[in-house]
Amino acid sequence: MILMFENPGQLEAFNKLKAEKKAEGKEVSGDEIFRPRVPLEACLASFSAPEEVHGFYSTALKTKTTAVKYVYIDVPDIIDISHMRSRGIQPGEELLPEAVDEGKVESEKLLANEEIVAQLVSMGFNHLHCQKAAINTSNAGVEEAIIGCYHTWMIQI
């Protein structure tokens, strides 16, 4: 069964954007990521849809056959989700800091050292991965950034 999205046009646009970025050797930024919305009713319909079971051994027929499995869901009139409600800050948790001035945050962002990035790119690494590696290693040097590039490369395999 195919799940029906509430926003199929946005999903198609995101898949197109993702393909374009991949063709350019770029990655989709966190702001551009799309998360499909699937109605609960569609999830339940998919879960409870009849399903063919091939190779089912029937004791009545004394042979293997194809059977159909049905799932019935008993849904109460009232669903209590109060257990999902927040109970405030818990032991071991800490509050996030209050919002700060955007201009201050922008000026404090660490930028990739272009010399490190250029050396890594000349070795054949992806430019964006080189920038990320330099930033993730606080521009500590080419050697450290190479390890970062290899780490990113290994994760993608």
List the helices and strands and how they pair.
Layout: H1 8-23, H2 40-48, E1 51-58, E2 63-69, H3 102-108, H4 114-122, H5 127-136, H6 142-156
Antiparallel strand pairs: 1-2
Polypeptide structure, described:
42% of the residues lie in helices and 10% in strands. The mean pLDDT is 81. A hairpin with a 4-residue loop joins strand 1 (51-58) and strand 2 (63-69). Helix 5 (127-136) packs across helix 6 (142-156). The protein has a domain at 107-157: Helicase, Ruva Protein, domain 3. With 157 residues, it is mostly helical. Pfam families: UBA_7. It comes from Vitis vinifera. This is UBA domain-containing protein.
Give the overall pLDDT as a whole number: 81
| Count of strand segments | 2
Taken from the alpha-carbon principal axes, the silhouette is: extended
Sheet with the most strands?
2 strands, antiparallel
- What fraction, in percent, of the residue positions are helical? 40-55%
CATH architecture assignment name of the domain at 107-157: Orthogonal Bundle
Provide key terms for this protein.
two-stranded antiparallel sheet; 10% strand; 157 residues; mainly alpha
Summarize the structure.
With 157 residues, this protein is mostly helical. Helix content is 42%, strand content 10%. The chain has a domain at 107-157: Orthogonal Bundle (Helicase, Ruva Protein, domain 3).
